[in-house]
Specification:
With 320 residues, the chain is mainly alpha-helical. The protein has one domain (7-312): Voltage-dependent anion channel (Glycosyltransferase). The chain is built from 13 helices and no strands.
């Protein structure tokens, strides 16, 4: 660990490392739901819960150490047109940890949810203000822009029971509204302008997240699968099939921390599939659920191995 956070690399420790926590949270929630709805062993989700919590603590500690030692570098990241979006990965990690602990340890869930929600509210306001006050280049836009805005949709998933429904609907509304706007901007950039940089190609998977998480949040708040919920579920399937159809775009790209962007959206789709199966008991949804759990597990295994390998080679936390 000491070699990993040695000072000459601590300065370059990226805020994007919180994407690892998001990915591990997605895997953990996937196995927790698989235990409840598909009969998977409970112990898998429980072990992953603690592993994910440790990962969050370690990454938070390292980044806080960077903050106190290299405040200028952190400030530069916070004003960077691309990296600013990844600061919300920290607050989203807290919200996802709140989801993980909600059923077994509601008090711990609240400890993560309240500060996570307040932090995400601030980051949402700051990011939108940043976009308004600073002229943005179209080439800087990429699906990671969804993170600080659409992350609001995660607030209701664990927030039921913590605050009244009006607060939850507020966050849900903001997230879904800006999903539509941001999607139009990103699609315009991808189709009519320069292609995404190679390191940001994995962020295309984030297109799955807004409708997938929106479906979960909507069900959590209202407890029904009506036409709107089915539309969200169908859109999540569409984007999942789209990125699968574009698999050649991803199989040969060089490893970056942004690979962790593969995980969270796929996990959300797996949870959607299991939730829909639990409500309808349709055999095709059962098959799809097992397939998505397998896909998420394989992807996390590959990305974890590549992350560990590149940490060992000291190819992470270097000057870009």
């Amino acid at each position: 660990m000491e070699s990993f956070i040695e000072l000459n690399r601590l300065k370059n420790f990226p805020i994007m490392m919180f994407a690892i926590v998001m990915g591990l949270c997605g895997l953990t929630i996937t196995y927790q739901r698989a235990s409840a709805w598909l009969g998977f062993p409970f112990i898998i989700g429980e072990v992953l819960m603690y592993v994910t919590t440790v990962a969050f603590i370690v990454i938070s500690y390292i980044y806080l150490k960077k903050f106190f030692k290299y405040k200028i570098d952190v400030k530069n990241e916070f004003s960077h047109p691309v990296r600013i979006n990844f600061f919300a990965a920290g607050s989203i990690s807290m919200l996802m940890l709140a989801i993980i602990y909600k059923e077994s340890f509601p008090t711990i869930s609240a400890i993560f949810w309240y500060p996570g929600t307040l932090l995400h509210f601030y980051l949402t306001m700051h990011t939108i203000s940043f976009w308004i006050n600073k002229n943005q280049q179209l080439d800087h836009s990429n699906p990671a822009w969804f993170i600080p805005i659409v992350g609001n949709v995660l607030v209701p998933v664990a927030g039921v029971g913590f605050v009244n429904s009006g607060v939850l609907i507020y966050f849900f509304s903001v997230g879904m509204f800006f999903w539509i706007i941001m999607f139009a901007i990103i699609l315009n950039r991808i189709i009519f302008h320069n292609q995404l940089a190679i390191k940001f190609m994995p962020t295309l998977f984030i297109l799955i997240a807004p409708p997938a998480v929106g479906f979960i949040a909507y069900f959590k708040m209202f407890g029904v699968i009506d036409v709107f919920a089915q539309v969200l579920f169908s859109l999540a399937i569409f984007f999942t099939l789209l990125v699968a159809f574009m698999y050649k775009n991803f199989i040969k790209i060089k490893f970056f921390i942004s690979w962790w962007a593969f995980v969270f959206p796929l996990a959300a789709m797996a949870i959607d599939a299991m939730l829909m199966y639990n409500s309808t008991k349709h055999i095709l949804l059962l098959i799809f659920s097992y397939a998505m759990v397998a896909v998420v597990t394989v992807i996390v295994s590959i990305v974890t191995y590549q992350t560990a390998l590149h940490i060992r080679k000291k190819e992470i936390c270097i000057q870009e």
